[in-house]
Amino acid sequence: GLPERERRSTIAGKVGSEVLKEKNITQEMRQLAYDNYQTTDDHGMHIYGIANDQNGNKYYLVKNSWGKTGPYDGVWYASEAFVRYKTLSIVIHKDALPKETAKKI
Q: Are 74 and 66 in contact (CB under 8 A)?
């Protein structure tokens, strides 16, 4: 692949200019990323909203646990594919559960 610096430059040049096709994330892809330490449990993210782009692709509005970093003060959009690929665990408030599910716990 490309060296990290070149890869970041290429990606940065595309930000805001086009909508790229997302990968279809499989469990095998998730496991490989975990096994080779591309996916780690090093911090948490607070998903607090959902948005769709001009093509109808779903994105989650995310607050990063690293604090107010980057150009958007630690807030960014994560594609549905990214969340499927990188999520190791999810915590939700019990009031967000469907009533039938909540009765079981």
A: yes
What fold is seen in the domain 4-90? Answer: OB fold (Dihydrolipoamide Acetyltransferase, E2P) (2.40.50)
pLDDT of residue 103: 92
If DSSP codes are grouped into helix, strand and coil, which group holds residue 65? Answer: coil
Q: Closest by alpha carbon to 81, among 47, 58, 63, 62?
A: 58
The pTM score is 0.71
C-alpha distances out from residue 90 to 10, 41, 84, 85, 86, Å = 32, 12, 11, 13, 11
Q: Which residues pair with 62 in a beta bridge?
A: 47, 76
User: In the numeric block, which tokens belong to residue 28?
Assistant: 């095998």
Residues in contact with 94: Cβ distance below 8 Å, sequence separation at least 6, in sequence order? 102, 105
CA dist., res. 32 & res. 38, Å (int): 8
Residues 6 or more apart whose Cβ sits within 8 Å of residue 49: 60, 61
